Each structure stands twice: as structure tokens, then as C-alpha cells.
Amino acid sequence: MDNFNNSFNVTMQALQLISEAYTFCYVNLQKSNIPLPAPDQVMATARTTVSYILSNSPAFIRQLYGMISQMIIESNIMGILLLLVILYVFYCVIMGIFKWIYRLVYGFVRFSVILLLIGTGLYFANMYISNSTSTFTETTKSYR
């Protein structure tokens, strides 16, 4: 980490490391006859995807992205740490909402199946009891 040039932006250093890692994997896996997309194709696709998502996102996400990119350009380490904490909290809230919805649907389905099984069991028990009592004719003897 000491050999990084301090005039470089932190984001550029991270992107450079990611691109070097992908290029390393691309070259070594290509030697093993495992095809991967070329690095320039991956970068073009990633750039297109991010621009499409940003152009179709709500206004507050675009404002948040502008604020984030401005913080990264300034390269203030406290701002970046604060940004990471905010993004992690946002991620936790989104994951909590998805887990809550999943558990709600799963619990409803499970409760419905349990009620269905109990209802079916009671229905068959009622049929069995009503059939078993109706087949026997009770006779009363009269001693007159």
C-alpha cells in the first residue's frame, strides 16, 4: 500500500486494482481454456449499466450519487468513511425490508397450510363420526 501515488484519487486506485485483478484472472483463465469476456467489454457493459440505472432512477438517488461522487473526488477520508456507514445502513434497511416481506409471505403460507391440514382433518373426522353413528340403528326396548 505504500507504493501508491498519493496524488491519485482513492477511487482511481481502487478501480485500477480491480481492473488489474480482472486482467490477471482473464489472462490466467484463458491459458486454462476458460473463456471470460474481455476487460474492455466488461468496462463498457458496466459503464452502460450504471448510466442506464442512473438515468432511470428517482431524483433523490441521482442527487445522492452526485453527492457521493463529489465526496469521492474531494478524497476526504472522513467523508468516505461516513459515506460507507450511510451506505451500510441503507443496505441493512433494504435487506431488512426484503427479509420482512419474505418472512411475512412465508409465515402466511405456512399458517394457511396448517389451517388447511387442521380443517381437512376435522372434516374427515366429522365424516367418519357421522357415518359411524348413522350406520348403527339404536333400538330401544319397551317393556310394556
Characterization of this structure:
The chain folds into 2 domains: 1-57; 88-134. It is elongated. The chain is mostly helical and 144 residues long. It has 4 helices and no strands.
Question: Globular, elongated, flat, extended or rod-shaped: what is the shape?
Answer: elongated
How large a portion of the residues is in β-strands, by DSSP E?
under 5%
How would you classify the helix and strand content by structural class? mainly alpha
What multimeric state do the chains show?
Answer: single chain
Given as residue ranges, the uncertain stretches (5+ residues, pLDDT < 50) are: 4-8
Tell me the helix content.
Answer: over 70%
**Overall mean confidence score, pLDDT:** 80
Count of beta strands: 0
As for the number of domains, it is 2
Keywords: Membrane, Transmembrane, Transmembrane helix
Transmembrane segments: 77-98, 104-125
Concise synopsis of the structure shown:
This protein is 79% helix and 0% strand. The protein has 144 residues and is mainly alpha-helical.
